[in-house]
Write a structure and sequence with these properties.
rod-shaped; 643 residues; disordered N terminus; Transferase(Phosphotransferase), domain 1; mainly alpha
Length: 643
Amino acid sequence: MIPNLLKVLKLLPPLRLPGKFWEDAQEGPPVAEAVQEAAPVAEAVQEAAPVAETVQEVAPVAETVQEAAPVAEAVQEAAPVAETVQEVAPVAETVQEVAPVAEAVQEVAPVAEAVQEVAPVAEAVQEVAPVAEAVQEAAPVAEAVQEAAPVAEAVQEAAPVAETVQEVAPVAEAVQEVAPVAEAVQEVAPVAEAVQEVAPVAEAVQEVAPVAEAVQEVAPVAEAVQEVAPVAEAVQEVAPVAEAVQEVAPVAEAVQEVAPVAEAVQEVAPVAEAVQEVAPVAEAVQEVAPVAEAVQEVAPVAEAVQEVAPVAEAVQEVAPVAEAVQEVAPVAEAVQEVAPVAEAVQEVAPVAEAVQEVAPVAEAVQEVAPVAEAVQEVAPVAEAVQEVAPVAESVQEVAPVAESVQEIAPVAEAVQEVAPVAEAVQEVAPVAEAVQEVAPVAEAVQEVAPVAEAVQEVAPVAEAVQEAAPVAEAMEPSGIARLCGILPRHFTATAGGAVPHPHCGGDDLPGILDLNTWICSHFDMDEYFKILLSLSTTLHGLHTEGFTHNDLKSDNGARDIESVRASRHGHLAPEIIRGGSASPSADVYSFGKILHRAYRISSHGFVPEIALLTRACTTPDPRQRPDLPEIMSPLPSHKKHSN
């Protein structure tokens, strides 16, 4: 800016009054040529006039800036520290807030460490707690099992006996039932033995009983025979005499007298003979008569003996059994007494077997019962330890942090103290930065202040030259003003991207001619699309050669990227504003902005294709923007549009 002002002052022709200038302009082309030559200088003066006026106005400020520059420099130097302080201020505040917590963490750290150490034990206790609880519950049962174990063992030992008792119980019951009979048998056994002994006699008695009975019947006869036996004997003795008498009966009358006797003797003689014959028998009968009488007396007994003889024989046969029964009777009685017990033993035998099987377990339960009781007692503590274990672990994890917090607490306190100062430095930092940035400008302003004063003096002359420029331009062969530096090769550009021009839209609107206003005053839609197509073709050629424009807009030529970022950047792609690299896609975005602005002011109606093309070119995502060939292809089809 300043060198341009100096150049303007050197190039200015001798000053002329406006009226004389117009007189000279009417003399012909030499004056017009001079005006044309002076026009750029006048334009520069015109452009510099507001700057010069501003320089004049800011000169006191520049002087103040110069004075404040050392302070600003000091602020700038302190700014990074202040920024750092500001950044760590929240941390310091947080450190201050958590310092008591950190102190508490440090205090509980040993406890947390101890909790961490016992946490595995507590976890193990928690795991065995259900088992311990079960052991505790089973302890009474185990104790009972232990107490019942000897009984169960005895039951197990007695089980075979009980089984045997159960088996012989029916026999014992039968023995008990026949015991009275056996006792009776035992009692009658001697009798049965005697019966057995007299049985043959009884049998003989039985056999002779009829004889005895007959003897008994003939006993009176025998007795009578015995009584008459002497008579019979005498008869026998006198029988011959009687026979002789019979023979001589007729002879002897005396014999007649005894003849009846003799006849009677004769009659009884057979009897007497028979008596004589049976006399021995009668004698024998007489002899056996007592025996027969005795036999007769014992005959009923003999008959009874005969009847009980089979029984006696059976008794004799069962006598050994009866004796054995008698011997086992006490055992049978005992068996009967223990039979219910044996039955009960049999019933509890499975239980006793189960008790025997679980006896080792019960013994083990008894052994671990104290441990289980201890586990039950510490279970709440273990549960509490388990609950605080995560907290303890967290405490252990944050313990180093707490220790660090404790160490940096004094620093944090100091940061807190200097935070207001740092905040103040941060607040004035932009001002200091601005002062630092404008310090060279202020220095330059101070240097060019005399030049600015001179510019202010020649500004009326430059204004007159500017007013004369249209007339001089009208004298030139070309009636078309230069467009901005971005147009194709058959257009030319000025260094500032602007040329003097006729008024656009009226006589009271002098200004800078750019693409938008030029379209407004000179082009129809057909020309509009021709220029856009030519512009896109030129850009595509640049991109093909590996170049980018970087600052494509309607009122300037190419500039370096730093000046682009410092300028107004409504036409720039978002990635360029964020500090990204220039790219063909960024030029497409700028082209879309030109397309949008020119189309908006052209007053040629709504063209949907151009609206869609504009939206596609200016999308924020560079990956979604069309390439220039895609933009160029639809443009020629829009040659004639009207309202």
